[in-house]
């Protein structure tokens, strides 16, 4: 794939040094969120007196601005071959037990911090034509672990250590009062009016004028096949589920020509959205092209589209500039923003931050966690079959996703699935309603709690 390396156009790096304490604090805060009742004060670096010590093997990496650390070693843990960064003593066991104490011989704190903070994309200059950090430039691609939530494996080592020194089991957190795994189903509403366009263009090109004329007539007199908000909601509800609709307020193309919505939000459409909200579906903001790096426009889209500012956002085309977008979202927290839902790779399903739980993105400028949550995205419909992405057959989709979904279940995480409303068109036989139904049936059978984004935020940090 083409990777545009355009350092001169990127925002400048503006980062505070990240010292060992800041890494430890950031990582342990997430460890405490991932399990029930984690006892505090047990884990520290090797020069401290804690009963669980972690080797310090980062050797100045976080004082420099290199995007990539040395290649990982591989360790067997919980039935998987797990890549371990900052592992300076591969000959030693990962976990060494002594009476009442234990030692972790790889720097799992630094390794977890590196992946969870998104260090690679902050310091890398690689961006694709949509300004996104490309999968091709990631350590997940280079070392082949995009479908493994590696940080959760690091946390599982910490869990084993805590259980050993306390003699008490440490259980993964549960969702909605008891479910072992959560599912966050969402729909970016890009198109409501354009289902006829692609086949009509094909008719014109092949000079099938009668068919073109019939299609045009149908378009002018009947609802569009993509004007299907109620069908989408009814499909989701048939699994006892609710989902989140990301609404795109801008219908004019972005400055770079990339299309935004093919609809305008008029009163009748807004009434339909409100009707979905009254049934328990969530309405959230789909930030238009350019808003990931334009705070004034982002802020007005957030405050002007909704009667009450949306608590969730995902940028159109999953746009996200690591050096700028998180700070813009931080500035919207006072205005009611609670979570973002864009951080997945468009090119491949899996874990962009190698973590299957929601997390607080790292604020590189201030050297501390942001105050909004990221609910990371693992599956987007278009990723699965697209000229630029994967080319899975329809019957290969669920089998391809199942091992990754099983990893999420193993650690009690959140499976985030983006299925655009236009992919509910029955004419879509590759990544369409049938493939969505297979994924939903699988999640339901596994006992997933289907939660909207704001329900996930409330479950994790209170309403
Ligand atoms: Zn979109």
Can you offer a commentary on this structure?
With 463 residues, this protein is α/β, with parallel strands linked by helices. It has helices at residues 20-34, 108-116, 119-123, 139-143, 150-166, 197-205, 209-221, 229-237, 267-278, 295-305, 325-332, 381-384, 397-410, 433-445, 453-461, and strands at 4-5, 43-45, 52-54, 73-77, 80-84, 95-98, 101-104, 126-127, 182-189, 244-247, 282-287, 312-315, 339-340, 362-363, 368-369, 373-374, 379-380, 414-418, 449-450. The strands form five sheets. Strands 9, 10, 11, 12, 13, 16, 17, 18 and 19 form a nine-stranded parallel sheet that branches. A four-stranded mixed sheet has the order 2-3-7-6, covered by helices on one side. A two-stranded antiparallel sheet has the order 1-8. α1 crosses α2 (108-116) and α2 (108-116) packs antiparallel against α5. Bound molecules: zinc ion. Zinc ion binds at residues 188, 190, 286, 316-317. It comes from Hymenobacter cyanobacteriorum. This is DUF7033 domain-containing protein. Residues 105-191 form the DUF7033 domain.
Low-confidence parts: none
CATH fold call of the largest domain: TIM Barrel
What oligomeric arrangement do these chains adopt? single chain
Question: Span between N and C termini?
Answer: 42 Å
**Alpha plus pi helix count:** 15
Q: Report the biggest beta sheet as strand number plus sense, adding barrel if it closes.
A: 9 strands, parallel
Relative helix content: 25-40%
Number of strands: 19
- Structural class call reads alpha/beta
Whole-number count of domains:
2
């Amino acid at each position: 794939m083409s990777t545009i390396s355009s350092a001169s156009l990127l925002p400048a790096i503006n980062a505070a040094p990240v010292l060992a304490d800041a890494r430890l604090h950031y990582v342990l805060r997430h460890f405490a969120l991932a399990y029930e009742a984690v006892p505090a004060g047990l884990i520290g670096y090797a020069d401290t007196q804690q009963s669980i010590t972690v080797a310090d093997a980062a050797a100045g990496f976080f004082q420099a601005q290199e995007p990539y650390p040395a290649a990982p070693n591989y360790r067997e843990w919980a039935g998987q071959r797990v890549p371990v960064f900052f592992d300076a003593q591969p000959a030693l066991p990962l976990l060494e037990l002594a009476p009442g104490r234990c030692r972790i011989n790889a720097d799992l704190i630094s390794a977890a911090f590196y992946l969870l903070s998104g260090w690679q994309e902050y310091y890398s200059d690689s961006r694709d034509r949509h300004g996104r950090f490309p999968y091709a430039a990631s350590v997940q691609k280079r070392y082949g672990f995009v479908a493994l939530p590696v940080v959760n494996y690091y946390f599982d080592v910490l869990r084993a250590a805590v259980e050993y020194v306390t003699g008490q089991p440490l259980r993964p957190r549960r969702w909605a009062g008891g479910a072992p795994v959560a599912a966050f189903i969402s729909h970016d509403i890009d198109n409501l009016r354009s289902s006829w366009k692609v086949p009509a263009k094909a008719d014109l090109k092949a000079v099938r004028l009668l068919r073109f004329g019939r299609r045009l007539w149908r378009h002018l007199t009947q609802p569009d096949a993509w004007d299907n908000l109620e069908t989408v909601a009814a499909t989701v509800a048939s699994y006892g589920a609710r989902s989140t609709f990301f609404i795109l307020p801008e219908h004019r193309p972005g400055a770079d020509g990339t299309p935004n919505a093919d609809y305008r939000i008029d009163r009748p459409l807004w009434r339909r959205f409100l009707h979905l909200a009254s049934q328990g579906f969530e309405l959230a903001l789909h930030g238009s092209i350019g808003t990931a790096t334009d705070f004034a426009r982002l802020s007005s889209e957030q405050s002007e589209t909704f009667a009450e500012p949306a608590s969730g956002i995902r940028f159109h085309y999953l746009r996200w500039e690591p050096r700028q977008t998180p700070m813009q979202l931080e500035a919207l927290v006072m205005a009611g923003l609670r979570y973002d839902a864009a951080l997945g790779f468009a090119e491949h399903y899996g874990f962009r931050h190698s973590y299957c739980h929601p997390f607080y993105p790292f604020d590189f400028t201030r050297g501390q966690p942001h105050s909004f949550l990221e609910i990371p995205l693992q599956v987007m419909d278009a990723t699965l079959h697209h000229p630029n992405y994967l080319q899975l057959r329809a019957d290969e989709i669920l089998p391809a996703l199942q091992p990754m979904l099983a990893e999420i279940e193993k650690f009690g995480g959140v499976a985030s699935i983006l299925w655009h409303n236009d992919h509910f068109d029955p004419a879509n036989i590759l990544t369409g309603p049938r493939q969505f139904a297979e994924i939903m049936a699988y999640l339901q059978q596994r006992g997933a709690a289907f939660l909207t984004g704001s329900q996930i935020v409330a479950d994790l940090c209170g309403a």
